[in-house]
Design a protein that fits this description.
Length: about 400
């Protein structure tokens, strides 16, 4: 790899920063330009709905690298810069200040943006989203000042902020279109655990409900009106209805876009000079045999090594299983694997579900597709082996805590 080459990374979040690190670790000696539209150097997002939001961690601990790292590793970090256009023919990116930057290879790490709702009052004061550190600071300040919060959406972000709000003594009503929280991700058997957890902490759920309007007074949110006419008083409203991958640049550049930027197992797009990683990448998964896009910290952490290898013309495939974690009240959990709605035929529980100390396994025809350990630790390696081995297991033995997981694997 010649030292005269320029590799450009669009998006200075976790995936972008880890991409720059991977390029240096793999011996790339050319110029690296890392472009981000935020005023902060790259940081991790999980603390925004976990430790930093709860006040248990300083924001400094969220930074991916020390400030000096970028200088020491000759990474040209450009902040508050957005890319307007990718010119594939000339191999240039056009920046928001009208300047252009040549690239030999390009990594798209543009991430995702919170969805909004097309309803009246969505832009009122007191309506919150969570994606960036400024959003988190606004939520923290709000939770210190209010007594009633309505959360729209019972996914991970919605529930983590709900937990933080309850711990801060704020009354919370959660509005969700489906019958249970996290239903798409976990299925009804395990989603019930999270419904019970939050009910035990005084959360009021409104399942099967849709928001028609955010009621305002003098430009400030005062209530949430549901489609059935119910009004839920609110001093603030968090909209947590998922995110959309930031694909505008890729689409305009003529790259294949379908639930993200479509890439192969090496994270290459259809253009030999462009790769994608992190929340924006819909990547073919060799183990699962299909493309998947997951918005998890672990992808932003690990995918960039594969993307960097592809930029350097090396062969590498990304085959890590999706992994995520959450902390809500006294429940801590890790989830490994990938199951689509209706993609399993049974859930096996091992341990004490009522006490929230258990492992849940999602099975299809006796094969383990995913596992979630709740308040039980140091078992993800065994869960991973059960999934990747593809062997069938006896559900009765799987459910029996007296049979060590290692013994199951050995069988």
């Amino acid at each position: 790899m010649g030292d005269s080459e320029t590799f450009v990374i669009v998006g200075a979040g976790m995936a972008g920063a880890k991409g720059a690190q991977a390029l240096r670790d793999l011996g790339f000696d050319g110029r690296i330009a890392l472009l981000g539209d935020e005023p902060h150097r790259p940081y991790e997002r999980p603390p925004l709905s976990k430790g930093y939001l709860m006040g248990n961690a300083e924001f400094d601990s969220a930074y991916v690298h020390d400030e000096s790292w970028y200088l020491d590793n000759r990474v040209d970090l450009q902040l508050e810069v957005s890319v307007r256009r990718i010119d594939r023919a000339l191999r240039q990116v056009e920046l928001s200040d009208n300047s252009r930057l040549d690239f030999d290879k390009l990594l798209l790490a543009t991430g995702a943006s919170p969805r909004s709702l097309p309803i009246p009052g969505i832009n009122a004061e007191g309506v919150l989203h969570l994606r960036r550190v400024e959003d988190c600071d606004r939520i923290k300040q709000t939770l210190a000042d209010i007594e009633q919060l309505v959360v729209v959406g019972a996914g991970w972000i919605g529930l983590e902020v709900t937990a933080a709000a309850r711990e801060a003594g704020v009354a919370v009503t959660v509005v969700e279109t489906t019958e249970l929280p996290l239903l798409r991700v976990l299925g009804p058997e395990v989603a019930e655990v999270f419904a019970a957890l939050h009910r035990d902490h005084g959360v009021d759920f409104r399942f099967g409900s849709r928001v028609s309007e955010i009621v305002t007074s003098n430009g400030k949110a005062t209530a949430v009106r549901l489609r059935d006419g119910t009004e839920l008083p609110a001093e603030a409203v968090l909209i947590a209805v998922g995110v959309d991958p930031e694909v505008a640049l890729a689409r305009e550049a003529g790259l294949r876009v379908e639930n993200g930027v479509l890439v192969d197992a090496s994270l290459r797009t259809g253009d030999p000079n462009i790769v994608a990683a992190g929340d924006v990448a819909n990547a073919f998964h060799p183990l699962l045999g299909k493309p998947i896009r997951v918005e998890h910290w672990a992808n932003a952490l690990n995918q960039p090594t594969t993307a960097a290898a592809a930029m350097l013309g090396r062969d590498s495939k990304y085959a890590e299983l999706p992994y995520f974690f959450t902390d809500q009240y006294d429940l801590g959990m890790e989830y490994l694997g990938h199951v689509e709605p209706g993609g399993y035929d049974q859930v096996v529980f091992r341990g004490d579900v009522a006490a929230r100390e258990f492992i849940a396994f999602w099975l299809s025809e006796g094969r383990v597709l995913a596992g979630m350990n709740v308040n039980i630790w140091d078992v993800t390696d065994q869960i991973k082996t059960l999934i990747t081995s593809g062997t069938t297991v006896d559900p009765m033995i799987l459910a029996d805590p007296s049979t060590p997981l290692n013994e199951l694997i050995a069988r």
